[in-house]
Amino acid sequence: MAPSLHPLIDNGITAGSSSFAGGKLHCHCPSNKVEVTLSSNVAHNHACGCSKCWKPKGALFSVVGVVPRDAVSVTANESKLTIVDKEATILRNACKDCGVHLFGRIEKDHPFKGLDFVHAELSSEKGWQEPQFAGFVSSIIEQGTNPKAMDEVRAKFKSVGLQTYDVLSPALMDLISTFTAQKAGVRFANL
Ligand SMILES: N[C@@H](CCC(=O)N[C@@H](CS)C(=O)NCC(=O)O)C(=O)O
Ligand SMILES: [Zn+2]
Ligand SMILES: [Zn+2]
To answer: Helical H runs in 12-103?
Structure first.
């Protein structure tokens, strides 16, 4: 049996709703759940194969998107949140008890500062933007996937209509490079 990429991807992708304006995320604790309220849909939602993003049990990939940080508020059991790695660019706030990541925030100077990283699957509401692409695909090898399985993994993404990248999508890579260039005072050539 093929390994699960992610429950939201394995059986084909369900489109979100452009009029959807957010909802509540809950951790996996049976009681006293951490609750985060989002007043926005996610954008740039994607599968991430990196080792740092939270993945549901049995899945090779995380599904993670961004929302403006002003759209994020912790509305219950905030005291259970802890930052997984204080040195990381993305400060991932996880539930101490169940390990689920509720939101990841960037505090340092970075092209994505101002955006929080969230997993819409932690919400029971429908309408969240569907995954748009798969990033950090080759990173799953670092977590034990056999390199020989990679063709199958990429083919599966392709079969559900998702492009695969080994870092991020061209749009996001361009944003990162634009930020880097502007910081360095680079003047762009005229078109
Ligand atoms: N190959 C590495 C890649 C890690 C990585 O660079 N992750 C990306 C995608 S989430 C990132 O932006 N990391 C910044 C951070 O985690 O702070 C791994 O799997 O651990
Ligand atoms: Zn929890
Ligand atoms: Zn990641």
So the answer is: none
What lies within 8 Å, CB to CB, of 112 at 6+ separation is: 66, 106, 175
| Cβ pair 66, 175 in contact under 8 A | no
| Statement: the pTM of the whole predicted model exceeds 0.95 | yes
54 vs 100: CA distance, rounded Å? 7
The verdict on whether residue 24 carries a ligand-binding annotation is no
Strands laid side by side in the 35-38 sheet: 23-26, 35-38, 72-76
For the chain, what is the mean pLDDT? 97
Task: Tell me how far apart the 2 most distant CA atoms of the chain are, in Å.
Answer: 58
- Ligand closest in space to the Cα of 78: 2
Q: Which domains are delineated in the chain? A: 22-183 (3.90.1590.10)
Which of 44, 45, 46, 50 to mutate to test ligand 1, by most ligand atoms within 8 A of the CB atom?
50
